[in-house]
Amino acid sequence: MDPLVLVPGLLCTEALFAPQIGELARDGVQVQVADHRQDETIAAIATRLLAEAPPRFALAGLSMGGYIAMEVMRRAPERVTRLMLLDTSARADTAEQTANRRRLIGLAESGKFDQVTPSLFPLFVHEDRQEDAALRQLVMQMAQATGPEAFVRQEKAILAREDSRPSLGSIACPTTIVVGAGDRLTPPELAREMQGLIPRSRLETVFGAGHLPTVEAPDAVTALMRTWLSA
Hints:
By secondary structure, this protein is of the alpha/beta class. The chain contains 9 helices and 6 strands; from the N terminus they run βαβαβαβαααβαβαα. The chain has a 6-stranded parallel sheet, sandwiched between helices. Helix 1 crosses helix 9, helix 2 (42-52) crosses helix 3 (64-75) and helix 4 packs across helix 6 (133-159).
């Protein structure tokens, strides 16, 4: 199988993909997790990813990671053997989303970073997982490992991202789009929109999961990744 580069979402670390990394390693897949915490633009993050990635690789990004993956496809499509976009959107932010990001940046910059993740958690997971203490702890730990400075850089990068829809038609590698059925941040209709714009792409829905299906329904996502990598 091809080497695999994974790109986490906002406030997330490699722990977002821990279940998949462990299982795919047993299959002999070389897995690398991209660094999306050091730069303030999607372009700069993509440049860093390409500098550190193998010459040719499979690429999977979740949420913010999907924005970065789409930028990689614009910059170096010849290096990507297959693409997976999980719980993401090709669109730029709405005015409401922009205002909320600026509010969260304000909290982080004013010493109130501890208020950010509790406000986001209900949107990160399926409505049936709101009281899942282990899942909440995982999300909190990833946020703490990210920290306020990196969080602000990530949000600034997301705010400035472009609408990727015009470039999706040029994606030629095998592409799978994955979405949690209960995702309220990037709901299934946005996944269907991307599937309609990327030639010969596949859409897979993960039931019982929200915005973070890799940890909400890890076995289902691992199975999808295995199929995608071996197709």
